[in-house]
Design a protein that fits this description.
By secondary structure, the protein is mainly beta. The chain is built from three helices and 13 strands, in the order ββαββαββββββαβββ.
């Protein structure tokens, strides 16, 4: 089964057309994003982003057909890129100053998508570089951390926003999978932290 996503500028919405009736898991995933079925146009329509819609459809498509209680297979512990619940992702961004944000995986969704929320891991070292910058080292324990009170990037800090994982830009496929990422905004990607600590450069205004 394939599908097509088109934008309807008249209603500032997106419309999804399937070549056949989508499975119940896909329909439920779309309903969770507040999509509705248009019985006349024969499309699913909603007001989220195309990226979120694709992540929901592909995630539901990748999920097992049987529920865990009826399947002999153990629950999935990691996705296609080896990402697990508790993994930390880091994003550095900014022009006139360097901002750093951390995000933690709180749920796996299919083979390629995850739910993440913004967190603040424990800082264990700080080395000043200038009066308004420093190299800071944070601890990565993979224990679930409390969500920060508010986030510029994450709308649902309780359940976590749905993000689609993509490989890094490394030429070697294994290295690219290890350095996987997800998009926050057009100007910022978050990359997986693969060590027990991470040192980042941060700067700020007085």
């Amino acid at each position: 089964m394939s599908y097509t996503i088109t934008r309807n500028p008249a209603f500032n919405s997106i419309e999804i057309t399937f070549t056949e009736k989508p499975a119940e898991a896909i329909r439920n995933a779309l309903k969770a994003l507040k999509f509705r079925w248009h019985n006349v146009k024969k499309v699913w329509y909603g007001y989220t982003t195309e990226e979120a819609a694709r992540a929901a459809i592909d995630g539901a498509t990748s999920e097992p057909a049987e529920s865990p209680k009826n399947s002999a297979c153990a629950p999935v512990k990691a996705n296609r890129y080896g990402v697990q619940v508790g993994d930390l992702f880091e994003a550095s961004w900014g022009c006139e100053q360097t901002n750093v944000n951390f995000f933690q995986v709180v749920a796996l969704v299919g083979a390629c998508s995850v739910r993440v929320r913004e967190v603040l891991p424990k800082m264990i070292d700080e080395t000043p570089v200038s009066p308004m910058s420093a190299d800071r080292t944070y601890k990565n324990t993979r224990e679930l951390l409390p969500a920060v009170r508010s986030s510029v990037f994450i709308k649902d800090q309780e359940k976590g926003d749905l993000k689609r994982i993509a490989p890094g830009y490394d030429k070697d496929p294994k290295t690219a999978a290890l350095n996987c990422r997800f998009k926050l905004k057009d100007y910022a990607d978050a990359y997986k932290v693969n060590s027990s600590t991470i040192t980042v450069y941060q700067s700020w205004y007085a």
